[in-house]
Amino acid sequence: MATPTGSPTIPKHPRAQVLPESQRLWNEIPYGDYIDPDHNPYLNLHRSWGRPVLTSTQAPACRGAWDQEFGRKAPLNVEIGTGNGFFFSGMAESHPEQNWLGIEIRFKRVILTAKKLRAECTESNSRICRYDASALSDLFTPGEIDTLYINHPDPWDKERWAKNRLLGPEFLDKIAILMAPGAELRIKTDHLVNVDAVLEHIAGRPFELTARCDDVNGKGAPWAGDVVTNYQRKFLVKGLPVYALRLRRS
Ligand SMILES: C[S@@+](CC[C@H](N)C(=O)[O-])C[C@H]1O[C@@H](n2cnc3c(N)ncnc32)[C@H](O)[C@@H]1O
Asked: Tell me: the pLDDT tens digits for 90-136?
């Protein structure tokens, strides 16, 4: 079983109110070992939920063995940052022949996702784990991911926050190892900076752009069977653009 190595800290969003106690917990207590049950009501709930929820201690035990966790051999689809789980549960429902793993850092959103998986009766082909996507190699062996979805990653839209953005060169290096040859990376974002960053940083890396769409809400995603995400809907309502990139791990 792999030992979780990811950072126990989360970047503090400038607009977020982070109480000193919760900041201390984030900073000092290792992954999955939060001891204060009152810290967050969803913390205990996510521990006691059982499948399809995996805690930060249980998920790394599945590294290299996701087929066993799902009880069958099937393509492994991963979504980073499931949020409320609209997209994730919708995709798991429409593709029951595939295995689906969601990764979400916030306890409440893990539970919201789990509730949708239950409502859609997709608990057998899906798992949602509470984990930090910056430590993905705790969860997967090289080549284990068949399709990776990233929908509306947190924008960190000021230049001084750029280091917090998910879609940077370090992340692309990590996923290049964890994705199978021929695997797909499917990104939707409202933030053009993300599109430009990915296109810049795939140069010299084993990714090939196979499709791009600058108006997903008008034209649809450049892959079949897509589901609108919660954040995507907000941009749809406001009439603002959503971009998509489809990339292939060569
Ligand atoms: C802007 S929301 C988008 C939610 C959803 N994908 C959608 O499109 O509606 C970004 C999500 O990513 C999650 N997230 C941010 N950083 C993360 C990380 N390092 N690991 C896992 N999830 C993360 C957040 O908690 C949040 O739920």
From this structure: 999 999 999 999 999 999 999 999 999 999 999 999 999 999 999 99
Q: In this structure, are residues 247 and 208 in contact, taking their beta carbons and an 8 Å threshold?
A: yes
Q: Based on the residue annotation, tell me whether 154 is a catalytic residue of this protein.
A: yes
Long-range contact pairs involving 93-96 (C-beta distance under 8 Å, separation at least 24)? 93/120, 93/121, 93/122, 94/225, 94/227, 95/125, 95/225, 96/122, 96/125
Is residue 230 within 8 Å of 112, Cβ to Cβ?
no
Task: Determine whether the shortest distance from the Cβ of 6 to ligand 1 is under 6 A.
Answer: no
72 CA distance to ligand 1 middle (Å): 28
The answer to whether 62 touches 69, Cβ cutoff 8 Å, is yes
Predicted pLDDT at 43: 86
Residues 111/80, Cβ–Cβ less than 8 Å: no
- Please state whether the peptide bond connecting residue 52 to the residue before it is cis, i.e. omega within 30 degrees of 0: yes
Angle CA 115–119–121, to nearest 5 = 115
Q: How far apart are CA 54 and CA 51, in angstroms?
A: 7
Ranges under pLDDT 50 in the chain: 1-10, 13-16, 28-33
Which CATH homologous superfamily contains domain 40-249? Answer: Vaccinia Virus protein VP39 (3.40.50.150)
Indicate the Cα dihedral angle 38, 43, 45, 47, nearest 10°: -120
All structural domains of the chain with their residue ranges: 40-249
Residue 103 Cβ contacting ligand 1 at under 6 Å: yes
